[in-house]
Amino acid sequence: MHFAIKSLTAASLIACALAAHAQKGETVRIAFMDPLSGPFANVGQNQLKSWQFAAETLSGAKNPAGVKYEVVGFDNKGSPQESLNTLKAAIDQGFRYVTQGNGSGAAAAILDAVSKHNARNPGKEVIYLNYAAVDPALTNEKCDYWHFRLDADTTMKMEALTTFMKDQPKVKNVYLINQNYSHGQQVAKYFKEGIQRKRPDVKIAGEDLHPIGQVKDFAPYVAKIKQSGADTVVTGNWGADLTLLVKALNDAGLKLPMYTYYSGVTGTPTALAAGGEGEVYVIAYGHANHSGEIGKMAAEFKKKFNDDYYTYATYNGINLLSAAFAKAKSTDPVKVAAAMEGLSFKSFAGEVTMRKTDHQLQQSLFVTKWQKADAKNPYSVENTGYTFAPVKQMEPYVASTPTSCDMKRPS
User: pLDDT at residue 175 above 60?
Assistant: First the structure.
């Protein structure tokens, strides 16, 4: 009997040890779905490469779970309807992890479809990692247990940006120009709320919402900005819509300070460089001149692709999954989702936490300024000789905003 108990104990220990490393050597496949064709293809292609590069760099022995990663691209053309088609295709091909970021309309469609799929298909659950869609609704009234956001949402970024702008005495008359969909509308809304609270003397000189991805020439919009007497431009535009806006400002010789979200995104730095130094600021969760592992990865990415690695949410996304796999001792999405709730892990910019109440990552934010690359900030963005230099870092609590999420958890 004594021997039997000893044997049983030994067997239990071996079973526990095996369970602890059950996921080691597994390959976790992630379906990436974003525009790989159309007006925003250059952004989508860069971000697919970024996910694949982060997955390859942080695979195997480079992560605490010992898993390998494979990221496969699906072209959703930026459309909510196409996103549903790509999601179905990915699920049919056995993907249990999906990621998307370009466009909050597509994000809302994926979030809803993943939630419904998981409710109807126990045992085949899917986790959605949102790396760039920043509509606050996705972690507020539309929040869902299976959705985890890696980027900072519009309210967080605008809280940080207006905190910085309130101390800029030159900012008096602001022109708002944004894409006419949820993200652009909310950039305008939350800017007006934030600046009114912190600098009630600042006036809105004018405001435009334009069709997303359809404007070929922003000259008429620039003429309105000039006519308004604005001394500052605030925009949440990204991709071709920001690149073409910058080009039109250059062509008109209109040199106004610009406060942006996405000036570092593919194509825009080259347009900015054509206009010289200028006063352009970015609010984001990272910048072009980080040192350490992320700086090394950015250098390797540039060497490999002659392109910029700027979507650091890919690094955080892989590290979040790896930490959750190790904690859950499994790659099963049901166990992993539970492990990700409230999980803190080391990012490229200090410790970050996946807030349990709404699955919104709490992280530092940076204000950076466009300038010539120098010894202190040497990274040449898009090989232009210019860079985005950090001028202010804000700790996670500064930009953290409350949530109205009333999350329904699986019983």
Answer: yes
